[in-house]
Amino acid sequence: MRKEVEKMSIIIKPIVTEKMTGLEKLSRYGFRVSKNANKIEIKKAIEDMYNVTVVSVNTMQVKGKNKSRYTKTGVIKGTTASYKKAIVTVKEGEVIDFYSNN
Questions:
Q1: What is the pTM of this model?
Q2: 66-99 burial code (b ≥16 CB/10 A, e <16)
Q3: How do residues 24-53 score in pLDDT, each as one tens digit?
Q4: Which of 22, 31, 73, 85 has the smallest set of CB atoms within 10 Å of its CB?
Q5: What is the pLDDT of residues 67-99, one digit of tens each?
Q6: What is the DSSP string of 35-77?
């Protein structure tokens, strides 16, 4: 039970966007991960959760975007949260299915 909670705290959620879906043809998948997770922890968590062989892990820090909105009371300014993103390459022929009900 503790290991499962630990894995879920490393992998926050998969990134399902048009750009990331295009990378799935190259056996590459995107995940939003914990800011203090390293590549080795990410690799182990993905392999345990999805039963695939991870070839490589690339990580990047995504900076939050500035947002502003005009309202009756004036301009509201803020930023979206910054986060860490991991691009995981799995072994040729293996797939990760985000849409299965397992």
A1: 0.81
A2: eeeeeeeeeeeeeeeeebbbbbbebeeeeebeee
A3: 889 999 999 999 999 999 999 999 999 999
A4: 73
A5: 999 999 999 999 999 999 999 999 998 888 877
A6: TT--HHHHHHHHHHHH---EEEEEEEEEPPPEEEEEETTEEEE
